[in-house]
Amino acid sequence: DIQMTQSPSTLSASVGDRVTITCRASQSVSTWLAWYQQKPGKAPKLLMYKASSLERGVPSRFSGSGSGTEFTLTISSLQPDDFATYYCQQYSSYSWTFGQGTKVEIK
Amino acid sequence: EVQLVESGGGLVQPGGSLRLSCAASGFGFSYYLMNWVRQAPGKGLEWVANINEGGRETHYVDSVKGRFTISRDDASNSLYLQMNSLRAEDTAVYYCAREDYMSGLDYWGQGTLVTVSS
Lengths: 107, 118
Fold this sequence. Notes:
With about 110 residues, chain A is mostly beta strands.
């Protein structure tokens, strides 16, 4: 199975900060990489797909990049609604696997 | 509006069985792959299984192979997960999720809690 490793596990930031989360795959997933946002008690929400494509309705302050084994999710200017946990997921090869998550906390 | 509504969760003893259901609406259910994803309390997301359009092809995470069975009924727009030989480590919120070939898991239900405990 392909292992997905996110860093950092926790990130403390302030409103307006630029935030970057990294996701590494144990082998190439090409660009078959998605990012999800999850708030406490809620289902995950798709933010990005194919590594750099923004899902409909997601604010443009979110962006994604990368291919192969290294990927990043960037929030250009952190907003109060963005404090949540973020997961990457590869859908290149079964079984699908998620990163362990990155919790974005208020500094 | 796409809606996915899970049901069937509850408390079950170790070794027991449970069948989860997911009622889909607002989209052409038969045209989409469907997935189950779970989240243990306070933990991250774990993909469990998926089933292709038509139901002829299924995939499972290793930890549930031989114990869980995913199925679908396109006539009633329903997805199922039959869970047998349940273990404490299967305790989790189980989400039903639609899979788009290009964009991954684009719609999720609200989840149903399964607790395996004596």
